[in-house]
Structure formats: C-alpha cells, structure tokens
Write a structure and sequence with these properties.
It is built from no helices and eleven strands. By secondary structure, it is mainly β. A hairpin with a 5-residue loop joins strand 5 and strand 6.
Length: 119
Amino acid sequence: QANLVESGGGLVQTGGSLSLSCAASGSFHRIETMAWHRRTPGGQRELVATLTAGRTPIYAEFVKGRFTISRDLNTVSLRMNNLKPEDTAVYYCNADVKITRYSPVWSEWGQGTQVTVSS
C-alpha cells in the first residue's frame, strides 16, 4: 500500500507561481504513473498532467506552457507559472501503484491541497 502526502499550494496573485509536491511512501513494488488532478470550485474534476517513467509528460491544454510536471523516483512535483484565477482548485496527487511485481495496478490518491489565485 502506498500513502501519498502532498505539500505546497496556497494563495497567490494572478501571474504568480506555486509549486506542489507529492511523496509516496509505504510498501510497494513500484509506481507506474504519477499525475496531478484538480477539482474546481464548481466541482468539476480535471486531469492536469501525467508522467510515466520513460515517457513524455502529458498536459491538459489549459496548462500547457505554464505548468511543468517532474518526477524523482516516488515524488512528483508540479511547477505552476503564470497562474490564473481559473486555476483555483483543490489539487490532488494520483499514483498508479504495483504492490508486488505481479499485482495489478492500484490507484492511490493524496488528500488534496488548495491553490487559490486571486485576481
């Protein structure tokens, strides 16, 4: 089982930057894909960016050129530049985890961290 702990987030003005980090701990074989999702104030859940080891990151259109996802072993980070009020959301870390070498992938989620962009 993997436990995801997020850090970062907070309040920033339009055009500002923030960084989020998510560290996975626990007993597992490996993590396949790590990603960031967000839930907007209106309740809409959106995929922000994903990163699978050895592959090119995938970004949602609305963050391309502004956000950068990176990964170091079992930690995934999201650097957010040129933030806009519409980026205000709760951001969740997600990891696809293999508990053992032969087990299926299990999706784990962090607790979420609030990002608020003021206009």
